[in-house]
Amino acid sequence: MTTDPGDLVLDPTCGSGTTAYVAEQWGRRWITCDTSRVAITLAKQRLMTAVFDYYELAHPEEGVGSGFRYKTVPHITLKSIANNPEIREGMARERIDAAIAKYADQETLYDQPYVDKRKVRVTGPFTLEAVPAPTVRSLEEIETGATEQLPADTSVARKGATLRHAEWRDELLKTGIRGRGGQVIHFSRVEPLAGTRWLQADAETRGEKPERVVISFGPEHGPLEQRQVELAWE
After folding, report:
1. What is the mean pLDDT of residues 117-128?
2. Is the C or the N end of the chain the one with fewer CB within 10 Å?
3. Quick check: 214 and 201 in contact, CB under 8 A?
4. Between helices 37-48 and 18-25, what is the axis angle to 10°?
């Protein structure tokens, strides 16, 4: 399967973003997704910091969809040499090479477009979107016929402790949190925090001066909203 410049490429599991990166490099549009926040973050960081060669367009007025200007080489076969009308016995090697190049078909090297050294490219504009996590109704709600409309941003992550919360607590205790400039916050303990809806864990930092930390888990498959931050702060 092949694509042309300007075509749309879909990668349903982005991983570290290699498909999107290569699509940007070769002038393809792309859509990629993943269930892992780590994978999405890695792919986004990789794309935002990438620098690519600027390829010369075949028809600049038509945009990238017109393709690139590619290097070509003579496609030489024994048949093309035998049927060459200019080759004679006793000719010098230079004249033979010139005659072969003159009548040989040209083969396009699609992996070698012409590069404009005066320019560089960065990743084009893209959006990062997410869908809210599905909310599962409890058996009690189904049996009683409860039809109360839930807020648009309701997530299972905010309905109390879950198995995912336990996994996230274990991961935080094991790896800590990485920030800008190489900063890392390690924890000596990360425990469940009961009795609060918007705060799910109570922790303590590791170091000479330990500090207490409370943690609010956002939705697993959606962006963290400003409203949740405000409610957690209150």
Report:
1. 92
2. N
3. yes
4. 20
DSSP 98-121: HHHHHHSEEEEEEEEE-EEEEEEE
Range of the domain at 37: 8-67+115-122
- Is there a single domain that holds both residue 14 and residue 62? yes
In one-letter notation, the amino acid at residue 210 is: P
Does the residue 101 lie in any domain?
yes
> For every residue of 117-158, which 3-state class applies, written as one string?
EEEEEECCCCCCCCCCCCCCCCHHHHHHCCCCCCCCCCCHHH
The first and second tokens of residue 228, run together, are 């949740």
End-to-end CA distance of the chain: 54
Which of 57, 85, 113 is where one domain is finished?
113
Q: Quick: pLDDT tens for 187-223.
A: 999 999 888 888 989 999 998 899 999 999 887 766 7
Pairing of strands 51-55, 115-122: antiparallel
List % helix, strand, coil for the chain (3-state, nearest 5): 30, 25, 45
Residue where a domain stops, chosen among 113, 132, 167? 113
In the numeric block, the tokens 């309701």 are attached to 154
Residue 146 lies in a domain: no
Q: Are residues 195 and 176 in the same domain?
A: yes
